[in-house]
What we know:
Layout: H1 9-22, E1 39-42, E2 45-49, H2 62-75, H3 91-102, E3 106-109, H4 112-123, E4 129-133, H5 138-145, E5 154-157, H6 162-173, E6 179-184, H7 196-205, E7 209-214, H8 229-234, E8 241-246, E9 256-260, H9 263-271, H10 275-278, H11 284-297, H12 301-321, E10 335-341, H13 343-356, E11 358-359, E12 361-363, E13 373-378, H14 385-405, H15 410-416, E14 438-442, H16 450-457, H17 465-474, E15 486-493, E16 499-511, H18 518-528, E17 536-542, E18 552-554, H19 561-578, E19 583-589, H20 593-601, E20 605-608, E21 612-616, H21 623-628, H22 632-643, E22 649-654, H23 659-675, H24 686-694, E23 698-705, E24 714-720, E25 725-733, H25 738-741, H26 743-757, E26 762-767, H27 770-774, E27 779-781, E28 784-789, H28 793-802
Parallel strand pairs: 2-11, 4-5, 4-6, 6-7, 7-8, 17-19, 25-26
Antiparallel strand pairs: 1-2, 3-9, 8-9, 10-13, 12-13, 14-15, 15-16, 16-17, 16-18, 19-28, 20-28, 21-26, 21-27, 22-23, 23-24, 24-25
Helix pairs in contact: 2-11, 3-11, 4-5, 12-14, 13-14
Amino acid sequence: MAKIKHNNFLDTVNEVFTDAKNEGVMHLYAEGEYFSGRTIGIKNRKLFHFGTTGYLGLEQDHRLKDAAIDAIRKYGTQFPLSKSYISNPLYRELEEKVTLMYNNPIIITKNSTLGHLGVIPSAVKDQDAIILDHQVHWSVQSAARVLKNRSVPIDMIRHNDLNMLEDKIKSYSDKRSKIWYMADGIYSMYGDFAPVNELKTLSQKYPQLNFYFDDVHGMSWIGKNGTGYVLSELKELSENILLFGTLSKTFGASGAVLVCSNEKMYQEIKTFGGPLTFSAQLEPASVAAATASANIHLSPEIYQLQNELRERIDYFNELLHQTDLPLIDENISPVFYIGTGMPHTGYNFVNRLMNEGFYVNLGIFPAVPVKNTGVRITISRHNQKEEIKGLVEAMEYHFPKALEDTYTNSSRVFQAFKLGSKSITKTPKTEITHSDLTKQLEDSILKIDEAQWNGLLGKNGVFDWKGLKFLEKTFSQNKLPEHNWNFRYLLIYDQEKQPILATYFTVSLWKDDMLANMGASQTIEKERESNPYYLTSKVLSIGSLFTEGDHLFLNTNHPLKKEALNIMMQTMETLEHTLKAKMIVLRDLSDDSELHSYFQGQGFVRIKMPESCSIEIEENENIETFIERLSSRNRKHLRKEILAIEPLLKVSVLTKCNKKQLREIEELYTNVHQNNLGLNTFSFPTALFEQMSEHPNWEFITINPLNDSNKMIGVMLCYKNIHKTYVPAFVGMDYHYLNEFHIYRQLLYQTIKRAIELNFQHIALGLTASFEKRKLGANVYEKYAYLQTADNYTLELMGVLESS
């Protein structure tokens, strides 16, 4: 069977960024001939600047500017030579002064990204292991993944989860020399801190534990000599810690700095650190500006600057306390995050603030989960109290307006961020409703009119009314949790009782790696041998893992279709909360640009599913005329690999099976299920096959070799849909006979023959193996799923595992 084409993560990120760009909140260009730091020119307007990472404002200090200008005059715009050969004349002084700042050996790098790429592969040995905080900066994760090529295991924990970290440490302690935990000192979106002292205590319990801290957002505004948050907590740097700071951002110049107290490791990294050896060195202007900044950091003035910034941070915190705005993490850092929940709300809020004269950053996927979109506000010494107060007043006024514009409310935002808010009592959890629409939500198909359901959603799959009745019975009262599903049915009507939207949902246990690549699933399945529910989650999904097809009916011509979709969104959020699901998945959707924009704005990311295949049977068609419709090349394939084999096989259609046959069918299905890690799901309950045999809509196409007619080697499990759609839902095969009899191709052909015999009009061939199905005349369609999750941990962990 053909391999599944897995989604490209970069495609998903590109779609999200493109959406934000089209809304006018990202990829902007600053304007003007002069930049003060207090304001910034955007779209022909001068806005107060609350988006800088130059928290102390040193990038505008005349001493840094004068030093940079003088260096260009003396040494040119660059010093075009590898630093391994010779450094420009200004480097020595900079290195001496930064060494004094940290009181430890340092290495200056071109930037932090290249620094990580140079340091991590040098510091981490083949006998070590790496554990990443899932919110550690992308540049650290990217550099760490290079070590997959050297078979260094890379694992990940949920953000700041020390219990999970300790469990991972224990799992590697007998196998690895050093265990490196990599984290940010201050996280760039929410402005929250790494629990540095608790981590230090953990390292005393586990001597193998080493730390790699990226503290670029903690630099300058805190700590002795402005050496950052991590060192302000540790007081001194032990040999099991590598610390990264920056000479850009708050420091006001360019470049980054590694601090390493382990002399042996320091020499190894400095002697040959990949990009540290081969990349260009800092430009003379940057070195000179950094030296001027280092002089400030080594003087008492740095503490005056820190206090001035702290006053502004405290003032902003004080003003926010008086509002109901959803501040995600309250602390003393200059980074603040106000949650908006859905991207479209974030776009609206940012544009409203820009129209009021304030520039803030949009926080969006993949830096945060899509449903945790918000505005990142940074406070700097450039900001004056009057504009800080003005920003808070503007946010307090426009936040409810942005919610209203995007058909949401503050309760949904607080729920998305799992905040226990002071405002929750002031803002009741009211559902989004529309006076012209009526919602029907049921927990069984038996409560839905059969003819109406079949008219709306009964055409293409095993989810006509009788099919869903069958599924409800099959996936209830089973022993294993993965075999028990919750069903919900949603219909939304207009005033004339005409349906605008209809769908059904299931809540069931999914494997988190369902759409990961085979290598990742193989790694995870080894862990599941002892822990069967490792990396599994309850998922609320349109449709189910059993069905494939168009699970969503939407009258796209109805003027209230968007309002109906809004009600569906709120319904899913309520179900997610009450049924304790961790993810929402919208499955099997076509490439509809309008729906894509809507779902993306509602906090979903799109991934490409395996292609869907179907065959349309013409009126009065027989198998001979069907074959004539195939291309000459495909007819040749059919004659050679299917028709030539058919006389060697006994082909049967079983509408009711004995116990032996049911046991054989289950075994054949299990073979395929276990072999198909590319679409990794739980198996189905044994009761399924028995109930199929008893159900009038199910039948089994089986094949046996004529020379061993008692041995079943292939089966297609087929459903006869109310609308004359034939659904070969699942396949079973004996792989020992796969190539000899071309079992899968033979079963596809026999499925087509059977549908024609039944005078059916449509064959829903389902997902995957599109190459094989196309050779037998199938039409192939691209399908997409939309995912919404409370955090990015699982997505990022899959990325780590897939890179192996």
